[in-house]
Amino acid sequence: MKDIYTLKALEKFECIGTDCPRSCCEANWYFAIDPPTVDKWDQVSKESDRKWLLGSISDIKVDGEKQLKVKEDESCYFFNEDKLCEIQVRYGHSYLPCVCREYPRVNVNAPYRVYKTASFSCPEIVRLVLFDGIEESLYVKSPLKNEMLGGIPDNNATLNCSLDQFVNNVLDLDKFPLGVRVFYIANIFGELTIQANRSPINSSDIDQLIKQTKNNLYGINLAVKQGKLKPDPVTAGSFWKVVYSLAKSREIDSVFMESESSPLTKIFDESGDSNEDYINIYKVIGEYISVARPELRTNYGNLLQTYIKVYFSGKGFPLAPTAKTTNITIVECMVGLCLLQLLLWMQIRSRGSLTDDFLQDLIVEVNRKYAHSSTVAERLEEDSHMQQIERYCICFLDLF
Hints:
about 400 residues, alpha+beta, four-stranded mixed sheet, two-stranded antiparallel ribbon
């Protein structure tokens, strides 16, 4: 039998409609339209409304799904002048496309566990999870009755269950710096991928890792403190340049970026691809880290730890069905965290402490522009070298 883990914030969540600072209807997203909803619209008795509803469907398809048209301002076809959904006004919630009825809820159905979580692209979810009193227990656990696994689970199912236990075990060890824990998780996944290419791995290998976790984290943390383990400047400089280019390509709002004359932005924009350029980038990164780290360790430490736990579960990490998708998911998760971190470094350096409202907007912006994008997954399909996270995971030691 499966266990269901339900995000506590969902018990309080209600769409705040016109009070929302960043309506999902204006988010410049493609809105998928599911066949049952199309059938329902096709049965509307009023002919003018039926044509109006069906006329909203675009010829564009994304991943084989039909999409709703958008207006010139890129808001949803049904977003009216009162900043409300015209479908909801006329016909009620049940006539909305499935994606609109469910958003921001996210269901991750894995062989051993179901996560009922939510997306941080919704401002109200960000507020409830991160700013409405951070709780140690983020999820409510309950059994999912009458849903049996059906026979002996396959190796992938058993392995992913063990990987999930491993990740949660590491994240719960909050006596160690968050960057050390994130580095350890990423490094282990990189090593497991290499090992799996030589011979199959099983859940007992992961169980052994869980037993060794405290000692391994202690050793890593000690090596970091002694300066024996630190990012290579060339590797780190090139990595952070890729993260910065991602922010630019996803058109992160300029409010959350630095001015072009700021030291880090300037060196990113002016640097080439030589080792010397990368070393200079990382040197400036180090200056930003030294300014921002006290704030990140004190004011934002618990908040960012909570963010990571919910962010991971919402992306389905590590409860993926195959090793291939697990690799893609971990890279997506880690790069997303690094994108948020880079923007935090920039903003803390220029603003000092951030207000809750600004931080909430920053998190929403990153998740809207990045987490709802398939950019990294598409790049990974083209460049398998990016999946070799063991090459650059040492950069994560700089996080948080």
